[in-house]
Amino acid sequence: MLTSALGRLRITGFLEGFSFVILLFIAMPLKYMLGKPEAVRLFGMAHGILFIAFVILSAHATIFYRWPVRKMLILWLASVLPFGTFLADYKMLRHMRSER
Fold it and tell me: Is residue 50 part of a domain?
């Protein structure tokens, strides 16, 4: 799965979405309800790196597979919504073939 641009994009999307959900629903409440900002530092950094990787990999896949720019913009929009990358993977990416 890591051997194709589509596989790398899907895995990164899953990890980015998972880190975003952890950041929003676990780390942020720990910081603001219990006064423990450590989780936000850890998962915030991880999420930031994964977000940048997702944006870059979606741009790469758009060029590599000659997708319409609209598809890349939808993927970018999905990456800023909770559970968005999971939905985008389900609706847009899972049925695609990784060959060109």
Answer: yes
- Inside any domain, residue 3: no
> In this predicted model, what pLDDT tens digit does every residue of 81-100 receive, in sequence order?
999 999 999 999 888 776 55
Coil, helix or strand for 49?
helix
Examine residue 100 and state whether it is found in any structural domain, yes or no: no
Among residues 25, 70, 75, the alpha carbon closest in space to that of 53 is found at 75
Q: Residue 63's domain spans which residues? A: 8-93
Classify residue 35: in a domain, yes or no. Answer: yes
pLDDT digits (tens, 9 = 90+) for 35-70: 999 999 999 999 999 999 999 999 999 999 999 999
User: Which tokens hold the place of 54?
Assistant: 């997702």
Structure tokens at 78: 């999905």
Ramachandran category for residue 67: left, alpha or beta (phi over 0 → left; psi -120 to 50 → alpha): beta
Number of compact structural domains in the chain: 1
Contacts of 85 (CB under 8 A, 6+ apart): 13, 14, 16, 17, 20, 54, 75, 78, 79
